Amino acid sequence: xxxxxxxxxxxxxxxxxxxxxxxxxxxxxxxxxxxxxxxxxxxxxxxxxxxxxxxxxxxxxxxxxxxxxxxxxxxxxxxxxxxxxxxxxxxxxxxxxxxxxxxxxxxxxxxxxxxxxxxxxxxxxxxxxxxxxxxxxxxxxxxxxxxxxxxxxxxxxxxxxxxxxxxxxxxxxxxxxxxxxxxxxxxxxxxxxxxxxxxxxxxxxxxxxxxxxxxxxxxxxxxxxxxxxxxxxxxxxxxxxxxxxxxxxxxxxxxxxxxxxxxxxxxxxxxxxxxxxxxxxxxxxxxxxxxxxxxxxxxxxxxxxxxxxxxxxxxxxxxxxxxxxxxxxxxxxxxxxxxxxxxxxxxxxxxxxxxxxxxxxxxxxxxxxxxxxxxxxxxxxxxxxxxxxxxxxxxxxxxxxxxxxxxxxxxxxxxxxxxxxxxxxxxxxxxxxxxxxxxxxxxxxxxxxxxxx
Length: 453
Prior knowledge:
Elements lengths: L1 H4 L2 E6 L3 H16 L3 E2 L8 E6 L6 H17 L6 E6 H6 L1 H6 L5 E3 L7 H9 L4 E3 L21 E4 L1 E2 L10 H5 L3 E2 L2 H13 L4 E5 L15 H9 L6 E5 L8 H9 L6 E3 L7 H7 L5 H14 L4 E8 L6 H14 L3 E6 L17 H24 L5 E9 L5 E5 L5 E5 L10 E9 L4 E3 L15
Parallel strand pairs: 1-2, 1-3, 3-4, 4-5, 5-6, 7-10, 10-11, 12-13, 13-14, 17-19
Antiparallel strand pairs: 8-9, 15-16, 15-18, 16-17, 18-19
């Protein structure tokens, strides 16, 4: 049996919410076998690195981390199994086994549900590479260790068919595959039965979901999930601007339990850069969508992504990005310098903007966003926010949490601090650039609790 050779495991997760959920799936399969999680890789018999390939130098960082696991393996007497999972696993495949002799197996994101079979093959003496995108995938939501999170994450669509010129996701997570509505609702009901009241629907292009059995679209999915008794908060990420229909916008107004927060990546404020990126929309269309969303759901917080220094980006094109930021006034911006990813079409567009110049542009963008974000946060001072507790704060006795519009709030826990998942009514007393500060929760706080199994 696997559990006779492996009794404790450690998972290290890099990347997005989908990677977080994949790690929960890995952990759940192991725990069903009686293998227990530990916080220190030195105490484990199995270490898994669940990797992300989106950011710069992803491969180098992965191999460096695997090097530290190799050293850990050499320094101990008991066997230590090492597995590389996630997007870099899919990208590297056999090369990873050749480069790291101590690596026991490579497991791509589309094969996460096969961990038990992979471990059995390894224990039988085979070094395993399980990558690729099988038509039938194992997705057992009973085998997910939700790890005390305040929200239940549900994958509704995997992979991506967009082929943006800078993006490696179609290569690492494969073509789009939508889960049936009935399967999604069964998983959400499962989470509600365990006490989760905040649900987050996940997908690389979540709003491109289509029911493979009935042809329903994402607006229908929002109706179905938001209408389930017990869903107090509903979130979804990541939305593709071109796929956000008026029917979907209308659902933001129809269902008050859909959180007033939307992540809507734009990537650039220049039409010419957007064309080189292959995004399929122009800035005017994006702005029309923003106006439509805000008319339907006043006060909604919008966040976005930007890539700075894309190949060929001129100072004038970058200025259009600053103008877009100033016009939309995003609640949050996630911005990065362009980094070439292997196999992407952007490699054929010429060299990126010089590193120093790109970093200088990035800092200008972030300074502008910090000013806007602080001003938006200052508008919340004096309000009372319903905050779901996500964990302890940085200061002793303080807690952290999220408002419905996804802003971070730090506040004193009081004499009887609430457990993660509790929903408290917190008065906002001060604004920072990236978070809010609150006072002690008001008596009689909360519309409910979000608990974990």
